Amino acid sequence: MTAVCVMVLGTTSGAGKSWLTTALCRHYARQGLKVAPFKAQNMSNNARVVAGVSGGQGEIGSAQYFQSLAAQAEPDVRMNPLLLKPEADTRSQVVLLGEVSRELSDMPWRGRSEKVWPHITAALDALRAENDVVVIEGAGSPAEINLHASDIVNMRVARHAQARCLLLTDIDRGGAFAHLYGTWALLPEDERALIKGFVLNKFRGDAALLAPAPQMLQDLTGVPVVATLPMWRQHGLPEEDGVFDMTPTLGTGVSSLPPKGARFALGRPGGETMTPTLGTGVSSLPPEGERFALGRPGGETMTSREWTTIAVVAWPRISNLDEFQPLKNVPGVRLVWARTPADCAGADWIVLPGSKSTAADLAWLRAQGLDRAVAEHAAQGGVVLGICGGLQVLGEALIDTHGIDGNAPGLGLLPLVTTFDADKTVCRTTATFGELCGPWQALSGVTASGYEIHHGQTAPHPAMAAQGDVAREVMPRLAWQNAAGNVLGCYLHGLFEDPAVLRALFGANVPTLETVFDGLADFLEHHVEPGVLQALIHKD
Description:
Layout: E1 4-10, H1 17-30, E2 35-38, E3 41-43, E4 47-51, E5 57-61, H2 62-70, E6 82-88, E7 91-96, E8 99-100, H3 102-106, H4 113-130, E9 133-137, H5 155-161, E10 164-170, H6 176-186, H7 189-192, E11 195-203, H8 213-221, E12 225-230, E13 249-250, E14 264-265, E15 273-274, E16 291-296, E17 300-303, E18 308-313, E19 318-319, H9 325-328, E20 333-338, H10 341-344, E21 349-352, E22 354-355, H11 358-367, H12 370-379, E23 383-387, H13 389-394, E24 397-399, E25 408-409, E26 416-432, E27 447-460, H14 462-466, E28 472-475, E29 479-481, E30 487-490, H15 499-506, H16 513-527, H17 532-536
Parallel strand pairs: 1-9, 1-10, 2-9, 3-6, 10-11, 11-12, 18-20, 18-21, 21-23, 23-30, 24-26
Antiparallel strand pairs: 4-5, 6-7, 7-8, 13-20, 14-15, 16-17, 19-22, 24-25, 26-27, 28-29, 29-30
Helix pairs in contact: 1-2, 1-16, 6-8
């Protein structure tokens, strides 16, 4: 078989390409078709571990991982053959077909294109040979005239695959019709011919008020506006890059509760309204004073006017931040991104997430005074969780003899030391927690699945262990707990994507990824003009 290729392009970064690609993957999969996603090059420190090309395992961008799940396909590295993981403002680690390439990482950016293009086309052609539909995501804008000659992710891919392209714009930013027309006008004529429809995303209000602009745009370009998608903040899919919400969120993303009984639009297909909620699993607040389980490790309950506040430290080189998206869906959880000590005030948990540059982020933590905030929180019995780089920071020291990350003293909340290896650990992992104490006791005996991406290898601090100060290893070589039980460090990414972990910690069933993917497809099908999605894959 040779797949038909549907491609999602955007007038800008952040227009919504990733979620629209995900929705298309689920839509076509629901038609009984064999579907795969593809993005030639992605720049992100949010990555997942998937099947490699030679039986091993490798990394791809998280967006393509979620798209493959939406497509009901087994994720593999061909779906994102080139991944750039920023290490500094002017330097990125280059991952080719799932594996770090030091040669490409050291090569000037503009020199990489011809080197990697054969790998990109081979990956795409292999996916086309195995599927009915390949849904391709572009990057940034396809009409950046300074980049067009060295393009390997937008129109060069579209031409190679003869893809049927949708051009998406964020109308909430303003200037949407100018963005669409300008992008179309800057493309060569043969590339314009590949654009089959314009999509307006993040629209607020009455779509009828857009007239006559859509028809005027079609008169100018010959391309119809095939969908006007309403603003929908609570779709449940992680944002691909950046801290996805800097305002505290309660469950589904409601940053504050409106007056009792007030109704407001919440992104339901068709524009229906609903009463405010504390998370996707709670349709209304229980009577005041009624108590219910709400995410305190150990199963404690709280009143209906309380919630669990989780502060995730948003350090500059944060990685895999998308693994915290499920916390936004948990009833009664208030998620805060912390960049100052004040952001941690009143938090029940403080989470130190993954980092692409642990020593540098640790230095930033100290410069902000967040190191003292974390230490004081832990000393008062507050819950602290470190994941991957966050685990390393919780220890006594970072030791780097290979020039991988940097040497630094840690926060000293766990009697551990981390040594950086030249080789990176990249693997899917399933492991079972041993006996935990204190606030994390609910995880005892829970089997969790996730992934590891780290250079550091962590072990007990020898001198401290000799004096009897030993961290409790609660998952072999992967997780440790302090003696008081309130501080936990773990190498396993994806904990909050595991239903068993969520149930143990929060006592509530949150929506699954399957629920999210079906919701995206439902939303798309409701708002796209009839027949458009089928016409895109019709073989001429």
